[in-house]
Design brief:
mainly alpha, 12 helices, 77% helix, globular
Amino acid sequence: MNAILLTGALLAILSGLMNGSFTLPMRFLGRWEWENVWCLFIVGSCLLMPATIVTVIAPHSWVILAQAPARAVLIAIVTGFAWGFGAVLFGQSVSAIGISLANTLVLAISSALGSLLPMLLLEPQNLFRPAGAKILLAVAVELAGIMLCGRAGRIREQAAGVDAERGGMVGHARPIRVALLMAAGAGVLSAVFNIGFSLAQPIADCGRAAGLSQFSSTNLIWCIMLAAGAVSNLAFCFFLFRRNGSLKKFKQPGGLRLFGLSAGMALLWGGSIFVYGAAVPRLGSLGTSIGWPLSLAVGLLLANGIGIGMGEWRQAPAQARKWMVSGIAVLLVAVILLSRATL
C-alpha cells in the first residue's frame, strides 16, 4: 500500500473513531427527551459545522456551489433527505437498545450496502474482477456477522428485559424486534448517504475545475446532503416537541452541561463526515467501497468497547455475550477482506 493509500486508510480510521464515540453523551442526557438532544445535535452537525468549515476554508465555495450541475445537486438533496430519516431511526435505536448493539447492527448493514451499491452503480465492471469478488465475499460475511449480533440481542432481551443495561440513556426502551427493524432501516438509509455522495461527485468536479482543493470540493457535497438531511430530522424533532411538550425542557436549571454534551456529539459526528470526505479521494477508484466500510468497522469496534465499558452487557447471560463476540469477530473478518480489495 503506497503513502497516499495509507493516508486515506488512516483518515478513514480516524473518522470511524469519531463516529463510534459520538453517541456516548446520550448516556448522560436523561434529563432531556430524545428530541431535545437530537435537535441540537442535528443543528450543530448538519447546519452550523458544514457552513462554518466551508466559509472559513474557502468562502467563494458558495458562488461555485450555485454553478454546480443541477442533476448532481438534486441527487445530493434527495439522498440527503432520505438519509435524514435513517439518522432518526439510528438515534431512536441507540435509545432503544443501547450504544453497543445499535451501532453494531446499523454500522454493519450500512457498511455492507454502502460498499456494494456504489460499485454496482459507478463501476459495475469491477464486479467481475478480483477486487469486486473480494467485496462481494466480504458483504456476505458481514451479513453473517449481523445475524449473530441480532441473535445476541434477542437472548439479552429474553434474559434481562427490554430496559436492561440502558443506564441514564436518553429516550425510551423498546422491544428488541422493534429496535431491530429501526436499526435495519437506519442501516439501509445510511447506505443511501454513501451512494448519494458517490453519485454527486460532479459537484466536487465543478469545485476542482474552479480551483478548489479536493477537500473543499468534497465539502460542497456534504453541505447539500447534510442540510437536506437536517430538514427530515428537524421535522421529526418538532413533531415530538409538539406531541410531548418537551420544548420547555431546554429551560431547565443546569442545562449548560446538557447543551455542552449535545454540542460534543455534533462535533464528533460532524467531524467524522469531513474526515471521511478527505479519506475517499486518497483510496483510489474504489474509495467509497473501501473507505466507507473501514470507517464504519472502526466505529463499530469502538462503540462496542464503549458499550461494554458502560455495562450494557453486564446482566446479559454468557450465551448472549458469546454470540455478540462471535458476531464482532465475523465482522472483523469482513473488514480484513475489504481491506484486501485495495491491494
